[in-house]
Amino acid sequence: MKKIIGIIILALLIATTLPAYGLLNYSESDIKIKTTLNPGENLRFLFFDWSLRSYRFYLPQSYNGENSMPLVFVLHGYPANSNDIMSYTELNEKADDEGFIAVYPNGGTDLSTFFYYFINYGYWGFWGFYWNCWDYYDCDDVGFIRKLIDNFQSEFNIDENRIYVTGWSNGGMMSYRLGAELSDIIAAIGPVGGSIGGVWNYWEDEYSLLSQYIIPEPENSLPVIVFHGMNDSSVPYDGVKNPETEDILLYSVNESVGFWVEHNNCDPNPQINISDSGNIISRTYTNDNRDSDVVLYTVVDGEHEWFGSSYSPCEISINDIMWEFFENHPKK
Length: 332
What we know:
The termini are far apart. The radius of gyration is 19 Å and the shape is globular. It is built from nine helices and 16 strands. The protein has one domain: Alpha/Beta hydrolase fold, catalytic domain (Rossmann fold, 3-Layer(aba) Sandwich). About 12% of the residues have low confidence. By secondary structure, it is α/β, with parallel strands linked by helices.
């Protein structure tokens, strides 16, 4: 059935995208939009695990194929798509300034949800975290990202020690998961407005019937920088508990950060810095080697936002601070 569905979707998308994007070139499992790969935005499709997946990527103006470049994955929230997160984060401008390739994958979905969101909103899907794609929609998001990394390394001159992941909301949750499951190839992660685990759609009455998910223990230590607004109502800063049983329905920011502090063997007593306004609090947890820092930026009056973009003005810029952190933390 998955094979039939995949073929149907593939045929439909080929029919709709050929006029807009030109010829398609099928190479193994990678269905590539045939472009000149000049600097700028590119759209591609990937037939992976009998599902048609898609992704956008931005090639900075300075890319010439001679010098290796970092690779930064940027994961969208729910419900949303790669174009939404590309516009919202404004990371393409940062990619041009600093010289990295930004990749914006689309999350997976089942057939009915795909057509509903695609027809009504243009949304492509969601990530296998929290809204349990791996349980309910049977798609391998971790394998999909690993495949994309392999593809980029084979086609472009990628610095294999500088592969990073960030994401917002549902994408922030998936960033945590990828950091845990791909710690062998990812250098650092930067979740924004996410959590390490919880119960799928915890706000429903039937949440007690659903299983809880939490990211697995990574095989390797991993530098982590986290951004979260204290007034976030979508992914609450203090998490969510079952009011009757006190069971955790959504892990808090402190629990999420604490997971990595413990795993990276960091000093549990952070260096704390508070901005003059009192609105920005940073906590830096270091280990003896100072190679797997965990940093938390709390925006006291912040909500569910990508701080510092033109959509969410703030005295700090996620793009600036996160990129500086990534630059200082290549793969060891």
